[in-house]
Amino acid sequence: MKTTNPVLGPNREFYHLIRIQERLLSRLLDVRDELRAPSTQRLLRQFRQEMGAGGVSQDLAQVGALLEQAIREVKFLESEVRHLLFDEVAEFELSGVPNLPPTLARFLAERASTPGFSYEVREDPVRGWIIRWKEYQENGTIRGCGQFYERPYAWLED
After folding, report:
1. Going by C-beta distance under 8 Å and a sequence separation of 6 or more, which residues neighbour residue 106?
2. Residue 142: which residues within 8 A CB-CB, separation 6 or more?
């Protein structure tokens, strides 16, 4: 079955926003882990002993608290965006495909409304659902193409 008219498609920008949030969260967690690291704590103790400055450790404690607040805010925003997007993805239905896996449905929902995007969905007895897709630029050249499988390595098990 070949489909070129989209049923539903959230904007790619929202998916890009999720990827940005994931990267930001990863970096914030890395910084938090560095501040909590035993080597950092040892350096702070040594600095307090040699310099007698307790303000630095208090400042870093405040930075840690603000960092924890930022992590919570990023997680909250990401969960809200995911909730909105995946509610729309859950509504994405393809006629003739009763049980399309969520990962493949998300892929189609994200791109289906993009001008120049076309896809074909078929079922293979071994690999499950297969999506073959192409995306054309405005001038008619192919921007990208490929295929995704529900179970890409299923043939190795036989």
Report:
1. 86, 89
2. 134, 135, 136
Give the domain ranges of the chain.
Answer: 2-9+97-157, 12-89
Q: What is the pLDDT of residues 3-56, one digit of tens each?
A: 443 333 456 677 778 888 889 999 999 999 998 889 988 887 887 777 776 666
Q: What pLDDT was estimated at residue 26?
A: 92
The Cα 74–Cα 71 span in angstroms is: 5
Task: Determine the Cα–Cα distance for residues 86 and 22; give it in Å rounded to an integer.
Answer: 16
Identity of the residue numbered 42: R
Task: Please state whether the predicted TM-score (pTM) of the whole model is above 0.90.
Answer: no
